[in-house]
Amino acid sequence: MSTSEPPSSGRATSRPTQRDVARLAGVSTATVSYVLSGRRGPGRLPTPETAERVARAADELGYAVDHMARSLRRQRSEVLAVVYTPPSSPWSDLLVEQLQTQVADRGETVIALPVSATTPPDTAWRALRRGYVDGAIVLADTPVDATELRALARRGLGLVVVDEDVEPDGFDVVRQGRAAACRAAVEHLVAAGHRRIGYLAQAHETADGPGSLRLRTYLDVMAAHGLPVDAELVRPVADSRSAAYAAVQELLRQLRPPTALFSATDRAAVDGIWAARDAGVRVPDDLAVIGVGNIAEGLMISPPLTTVGAPELDFTPLVQRLVARVDSRETLASETLEMPWTLIRRGSA
Amino acid sequence: MSTSEPPSSGRATSRPTQRDVARLAGVSTATVSYVLSGRRGPGRLPTPETAERVARAADELGYAVDHMARSLRRQRSEVLAVVYTPPSSPWSDLLVEQLQTQVADRGETVIALPVSATTPPDTAWRALRRGYVDGAIVLADTPVDATELRALARRGLGLVVVDEDVEPDGFDVVRQGRAAACRAAVEHLVAAGHRRIGYLAQAHETADGPGSLRLRTYLDVMAAHGLPVDAELVRPVADSRSAAYAAVQELLRQLRPPTALFSATDRAAVDGIWAARDAGVRVPDDLAVIGVGNIAEGLMISPPLTTVGAPELDFTPLVQRLVARVDSRETLASETLEMPWTLIRRGSA
DNA sequence: CTGAAAGCGCTTACAG
DNA sequence: CTGAAAGCGCTTACAG
């Protein structure tokens, strides 16, 4: 334990304000503000002596600017958010980190705002609506509502949304071309001669439901090639590692087991490979496997996972766009950026 | 695309304020505030007719309360944070979610505040210092500074810190008893007759450095039983899946390979099991493996991973303590909570 | 170069 | 039951 803390007053002191600092330094709060913010009014900066006195007083009092007051006055919170739906992933971690490092010099704070499906769905949006942050990047797979997004943008929130469908309108949209990439994956399996291709679906996917891009793509390609899709070939296990493992084991025990698997998630694909290996089924010879998402774990397994995802790990264009939009304060034209997914061929298919 | 949006004014309208609502409803801003917040002053609530008029006006204008102004006035941000060091884990996700659901009815917002090692380390703390949030749970493995924590608490920030060393002082501390649990793990291996026990270390661990609890525990137990620790038995690969896989393969090819492995992380332990299996080494017969952290993935592999970690998935005590502390506004006595780790015996050792 | 003062948008005793 | 007014802690033209 450090004991460098100066002997405290004992009772819980409330936070010192600029008035306290001003009083101690013998100047006005305006001067305190100028010195501490490093900003300058129409005139020149305070003299070094004044600045020094103020800095010492602030230090002595342990002064830190009050975020709410500054934000209210500046009409800027200097907070940027990354909105996403759990589970958090290496991708969300990476984006948060890149955002943090790239805006650190501007003094902005970066927060993560997970909007969980099991949580009152409105909580994260409400935070955005109330002006809690200046801008946000909304990651793919977050349920978004175009009307809500437009309203947020109209209120002055800087918004960059990763989504395949929504149209830019006061906010920017990033397209990944997921459908095309998934199509390429299934086509790849078909071209390799596979006819019985299983699909590990996410729990919420239904043949005609929204957000079932991968399932529909799978069904489309199968149909386009006249390949049958038994109901038993489609398993809603892509969200659960254990369920995926069990389902693949079960599939492989069937009379006519699939020779290829397309999985809506890399995690389930990895578990599928485990299941195959544990069952003595060779990958990719006896069972080809393709996942979706390009997570790092796919590189660790043997054979490494063929997958569909973003080849790049660089979110700079996204970050820069958010910064530009927040700075522009709504005067920027809405744009569509492309960060296309591709089929990343590795060992498993 | 939805087209239900009313035809907008075209230009970017700024956010409506309570004054706008008051004007439209023909009442004072005080009445607007009372109606919209559901609070009541000394008198009774506004009449239903008034409330109705206000509600309609607010709706028409698309009014949402301004977070900064409310926070400044109430001296409460109604935001709670979970502070942790990436990578985010199922544990951090779970805590965030439990916190969200348990405070949702109080209207509080929950954010995640990842403090990355590669980021200017001060950024997250600065946010806390500025009064951006009312309270925070600081997860284990976050580098904490006792002096800073005390200063934050003194400022009125509600703080619950998961850490083995820091002493409660205006904030609460949660102990996990990691050392004892890790000790039990290594003792378990020794008791099973293992003499060559490898250790997969985290990158920053050094024999005498801080935050090297697991390494020291390993060395202590080995020494206590007179077991030799070759330098080559300790590998700093626990942070990287690929490095762990390669290191274990390499270890197993040695003249005198280890017969047991203690890994500072479950992830590396899982990769170690893969490596062993790929090398034709049976787990646990030829190689016993114990990890740390109790991640879900450990249940998926075969054999399931023996590990050290929290047996419970329930953060309720932690959440309740944070809520109590934030509500108490510093008058609460500081406490130490116990959420002990244990050795969770499964198949791999 | 520095200070007095207004005002950001709320909430909340206090009068009426 | 409702309104006028003060004030939360800052920032920033505006005078001096």
Give descriptors for this structure:
homodimer, 349 residues, alpha/beta, 6-stranded parallel beta sheet, 13 helices, DNA-binding
Outline the fold blueprint:
2 copies of one chain form a homodimer.
Chain A: H1 18-25, H2 29-37, H3 48-61, H4 67-74, E1 79-84, H5 90-103, E2 109-114, H6 123-129, E3 135-138, H7 146-154, E4 158-162, E5 172-175, H8 178-191, E6 197-200, H9 213-224, E7 234-235, H10 241-252, E8 260-263, H11 266-278, E9 288-292, H12 297-300, E10 306-309, H13 316-328, E11 336-338, E12 342-344
Parallel strand pairs in A: 1-2, 1-3, 3-4, 4-5, 5-11, 6-7, 6-8, 8-9, 9-10
Antiparallel strand pairs in A: 10-12
The structure holds a DNA duplex (16 and 16 nucleotides).
